[in-house]
Amino acid sequence: MVHGTGRRIRKATSAEGAGESGLAKLIELHALNSFGDMLITIALASSIFFSVPTGEARGRVALYLLITMAPFAVLAPVVGPLLDRLPHGRRAAMAMSMLARAVLAWTMAGVISGGGIALYPEALGVLVASKAYGVVRSVVVPRLLPSRLSLVKANSRVTLAGLLATGVAAAVGGVLHLIGPSWPLRGAFLVFVIGTLMAFHLPHAVDSAKGEQRAVLHAEVHGEGSHLIHHKPSPVKASLRTVGPSVILALRAMSAMKWLVGFLVMFLAFLLRSEPIGGLRPTLALGLVALAAGTGNALGSVLGSWLRTRGPEPTITAMLLLATCATAASALWYGVVTVIVVAGTAGLAASLGKLALDALIQRDVPEAVRTSAFARSETLMQVSWVGGGAVGILLPLNGVLGLSVAAAVVGLMLLWTIRSLFRVGLRRRPAAPRIA
Hints:
This protein has 436 residues and is mainly alpha-helical. The protein contains 14 helices and no strands.
């Protein structure tokens, strides 16, 4: 049975040339990554959100979440140029992310029962390592893209594999947690050790930078048009302006949706524990919200092929509109149904919106600089997620107030995005980014 299941999984991941290009191995590695992250999440859920008084847990998580924003603030301007200058160490970077989480999982297994203060920096270290893996993984996908697959469909397949692995890990982690609170962490240790070895078995194309150049993301120099330059640009204030107006539109919209997801994760985790809605137990309410978010995320990945026949700009704008309406409705009619709906909608919008962003980068950014553009966009997404989570922790635990604030934030970004959409629609050709 195990052998047959393994063959079917390998056949699915290797379809449409993914086996020949090496994308299948990355899909399997990402599934393993998601499996391990879910095991750690299950182990930490009881200790961080349920074993500690709500006020104390919020204070600790808020403090360390704010501290983790500093590394991401550094990663945003640094990780892109670093990956540009060191383009041959992607397998090692992914392996180090896996190994770091293996060590942290084993360390946390020894202190999880006591729920001591040392657990928090270790848990947030896992978060940083996981986000660093996400940045590198987004950069690697274009290097392993089969000729028969679009980048959007390849990313959709990678994401869907991770979601399926997360679902399996939830069941396995629940069983391990019944044995003892440390057993999911010991399982995660084993998973990440295997992932460390698998990372080094990725194709050599992962570390090949042949034909790639560095994307210089900075403001337009006055008097110059949107064209390619091959000399060192004049030092100007850094921005993401020269990747093209459509990509900037998508980056703004996706930043808002990632902010919303981070906000909902942290805000609802504490809110539903201290103020259960609809008479539901906190664990049941959180489980329903998590199920809705996961279902929405999976649905967005499945619908990824829909982007091939529709414009990415309207798609990402529609997703932001959908998320804004759902958040506003949950603030006006706060209850079990609306909270579940907003969680599922946020998952769907973020998943499909990310695929739209990938499609725009593939369409508007030249192949020579696409890797660098992916590194920068992924880092911006992670910073937005952490920022939303920080706001969710700092706000008072009032459902109507919190969701109203969230609706106002994404609503303002929606207006900005719609305004940009009309301006982008007037352009016949997308502006090309500068490269150097």
